Amino acid sequence: xxxxxxxxxxxxxxxKVVRHNFAQMGDAPSPGGTGEDINPTDPVFSLSTTxxxxxxxxxxxxxxxxxxxxxxxxxxxxxxxxxxxVDENGVITPLAKGETTISFKSSATDQFNASESRGVLTIxxxxxxxxxxxxxxxxxPGESTRIVIKGEKSLDGVKLDPITCxxxxxxxVDExGTIKANExxxxxxxxxxxxxxxxxxxxxxxxxxxxxxxRVFVPIKGIDEPLYPxxxxxxxxxxxxxxxxFENVECVLVKYDISHLNSMFVAKTYIYFSHESKNTFQxxxxxxxxxxxxxxxxxxxxVETPIDIYVSQITNLSSSQYLxxxxxxxxxxxxPQNHDNGIIFEPYSPW
Length: 351
What we know:
Elements: H1 3-9, H2 22-25, E1 45-47, E2 51-53, E3 58-62, E4 73-78, E5 84-86, E6 91-94, E7 98-106, E8 115-126, E9 132-134, E10 138-139, E11 144-149, E12 160-166, E13 171-173, E14 178-181, E15 189-197, E16 207-216, E17 235-241, E18 249-257, E19 265-274, E20 279-288, E21 298-303, E22 307-314, E23 322-328, H3 329-332, E24 342-347
Parallel strand pairs: 2-8, 10-16
Antiparallel strand pairs: 1-3, 3-6, 4-7, 5-6, 7-8, 9-11, 11-14, 12-15, 13-14, 15-16, 17-18, 18-23, 19-22, 19-24, 20-21, 20-23
C-alpha cells in the first residue's frame, strides 16, 4: 500500500508533493499511451444539407464530423453537370437550379481507409435570395465602383430598382450596380445605398430593402496628401522681397489655407532639389493669420549631392489661417516636377 496515496486521498498533508501510483489506482494510462492500436475504418459520407440555395454553400461530411478533416476527394463526377461544383475539401458551390448526384473517390488518412466508390451523394439546388456587397468600400471623388453578388464579380444578371442614396448628390448608382462618386464632393461622406433587386429565373429571388454603405473619401490637403508647391497645392505668386537674404531678389510665394488644422499638428516640409553643382538652396516658412513674416524662419541648406532632401518643421499652427512658403525664383524653377515636394501635416507630440 502507498502511504503517499492515502495521505492525498484522506486530505492529510496537502502541501507535500504526492507521488501517485497509477498502477495501483488503475484509472490512468500507462506511459506507452492507451495500450491499444486504432485501426482505420471505412468512411461513411453524407451532406451537411441535401438542399442548398444559390449563393450559399454545402459540405461533404465524413461519419459524424462537420467536414472531411484531412480526407481529400478526387475524380469527382456529376450525373447532371453544371448544377454544382465540389472541390477536393468537399465544399459544394451551387451553380444553377436542379438536382445532381455526386460521385468521388477519397484519400486514406490515419482514421479512414481510402474509398474507390463509396462517395455517391445527391443534392438539390434551389433559387436563392442574393446577398450583395461592394467591390470597393471606399472611393474618392470622380472614381467608380460597383455592387456585386457576394462572392461574385458582378450582379449575375440581377437588376437594381428602385435605388435611393442618402445623402443625395454624392454618388450615382445605375440598375447594373455601377456607382460613380461626383467629382465636386467637398468632404468625406458615408453614403447609404438602399435598393430592391429583380428576380433572375432559376437563380435568384427578388429582394427588397437591401442596404450598403459606401465611404466617399476626400483627402485633406496637407494631412492625407502633401501640399505641393511646384504643382497646384497652393496659390502661387511672383514677388520681390526686400528682406535679407532675398533682398531685391525675385521670389515665388506660395500660400496655403490651413484653417482646418490646429496646434495638434506640425508642418513638415519635404524639399527635393536638383542642382548641377554645389549651390545654396534657400526658402522661408511662416504660419500667420494674415500676411507672412519670414524673419524668424528663413532656412538655408547647402546642396552637396545632385538630388537631396531637406526636412524642417514648424509647430506654431494654433490660430493660424495660412502657411506661407517662399523660394528664390531661381531655386523654385529647379525643383524637379517628378518629386513629392511639399508640406505634410502630422500629429504633434512634444515627446
